[in-house]
């Protein structure tokens, strides 16, 4: 079940929005749709969030539904767990993914496990939204990509959109699902990513990737903030006569193995791109499954382009991030193997 | 009458069973006998489970002997099945007094098919939706922020429920405890925090735990009242907790109640020789003399309605029978199949877990190829 590009599932007006506008719109529509939905976190009320993801929501729905909290990630996540257990549908914002540490125990000990440990008697369907990734001169406390920590914890779903259409659809799917979802927002795409977004209601299924570009020579796989550079690399390769297929995972847990394996079995080559540090990077699991399932059909080793195993730097963030040249070079290496 | 921030624990009945202030009218001999029965039932449950542990039929147990007045008294102060409880891992006397069945608690301790939690956690971490008694987590103080959130939801929904959150003295050192207390205070959430201060976090004494003189004074920092109660005086526990719970229910915001009590037994089977290792026999004896069950017996004597020894012996036997029957009933349901390991991770079973389940099925039936799904 794959579309070359996700098609709007809803009739109605389609506008060009930025990624962050799509996120705001998703929350607005969900707040309007379901009384049980609330939005909270540090500075999300009158201020509208430090990136303005929640701008206007408190004005529209009141302090009852959209409210500021004490400066405590443990409280924010923990409160979301308790609210969800009591029947609400909380959307909690953690101001930066780098600050998930104090809320980590709440995420892995409570949110991820309450359904399992209670034998399904108590559940915690909730969404934790948080801006992640680099490229905004944030230094190592405003740039990290901690998704692998959460992908490693059974009981959590982990998603990261790269387009406005997916941002809205995935967020709405996360709010309506039965599970805790960690929803990473690639902050450098907040305003850089623009695209068509239907005004109406639709969801993007969690666990489904998308083919962004079709090709037969190799498969480029990424998610989140690196996607524009992945597509630029594919364009550069196309100018050299190489047709790369580009897949946007969109969801890490669960991830669309079927889509990935279908593509790599066709192309015989895979290059995996993320900006998180290389060691124990989530893409290691993707590479593992590719080689396990398609070993005989691979024409080259599975390549990984990732962040370096250093804390995220400040001055050097342009060289830290895998840009189109580094991605294209890995592709050439695979093609020449 | 019931003041917050007292320097000494609030008490109604002295250690030798004398009312030291007027006994509230509701504490009739009938009620006191009922409370006595519930405390004895919890005490005997403790003994039986320690026996099961020694027999190897369960693998972990955390005794609450000596803490029965605090837990049974708390149960009496709630609207059971209406209010919500986020308990900690020593709360079986609370669970029993709230009406969680002996079978349900025993089943969880044995991990049988009759376990409501489906064999997913180490023993003594039960949970029961019928009583809104949320499944217990081992992770110390991690129930505190969710309890605050549960209470925030109750306020948001406009229901007249409250949330109760229990914890030991050690939990008050965790960051999550402070975060949750602060959150509840800032939100004005109807949350009743109850510290079952038994003075020992495994082998670490309260004096090493904090420089605060008491636990309840910490409430001041979070803008809520803190109450200090003799946790071995069930009359005091019920009087204070009922009063505070209704204040919380009526929109006064959260409150903290510290029940000063003592864990007569070890922390768990992991430190079975508590006296040899970290505390003195003298200290234990001193607290044995403050036994909450004996105190009620003495109070009943004082009121001219003594319980005779035969009655207590019969109560003890009845509880032992009840546990034995629960053990047999639980064991009769068998151990859960391996398949349920893959359920309840998510609302629906995702593809990768289906594949891992299929691999395990093949391995179990001897048809597996290789070592991974």
Would you give an account of this structure?
The complex is a heterodimer of chains A (337) and B (373). Chain A has 337 residues and is an alpha/beta fold. In chain A, 34% of the residues lie in helices and 20% in strands. Chain A contains 12 helices and 14 strands. Chain A has helices at residues 19-33, 57-61, 73-85, 104-111, 114-117, 147-151, 164-176, 227-239, 257-267, 283-294, 317-320, 324-335, and strands at residues 14-18, 37-41, 66-68, 89-93, 127-132, 157-159, 181-186, 194-198, 210-213, 218-222, 244-248, 251-253, 270-277, 303-307. Chain A has a 7-stranded mixed beta sheet, with helices on both faces. In chain A, helix 1 (19-33) packs parallel to helix 7 (164-176), helix 3 runs parallel beside helix 4 (104-111) and helix 8 (227-239) packs across helix 12. Chain A is globular. Residues 1-9 of chain A have low confidence and may be disordered. In chain B, the strands form 2 sheets. Chain B has a 5-stranded parallel beta sheet, sandwiched between helices. Chain B has a two-stranded antiparallel sheet with strand order 4-5. By secondary structure, chain B is an alpha/beta fold. Chain B starts with 28 loop residues before the first helix and ends in a 9-residue tail after the last helix.
